[in-house]
Design brief:
The protein is α+β, with helices and mostly antiparallel strands. It has one domain: Alpha-Beta Plaits (2-Layer Sandwich), CATH 3.30.70. It has two helices and four strands, in the order βαββαβ. Strands 1-4 form a two-stranded antiparallel sheet. Strands 2-3 form a two-stranded antiparallel ribbon. The relative contact order is 0.39. The mean pLDDT is 96.
Amino acid sequence: MGKVIIDEERCKGCGLCVEICPKHILTIAESTNSFGYQPARVANDEECTGCALCAQMCPDLAIEVYK
């Protein structure tokens, strides 16, 4: 089981992590960060396998994954 940490202030809400996640545990938040972006958020972390594809795909380096 993995744990995904998203730095919501760094995230620009591009959605690349949401698209690449094989377990579909990430979504785009309805709320905005201080820059006005809707960041990605973890919707169901129990399903995370710790593959870290989301962190590899993130252009803003806003995601960390721990196993």
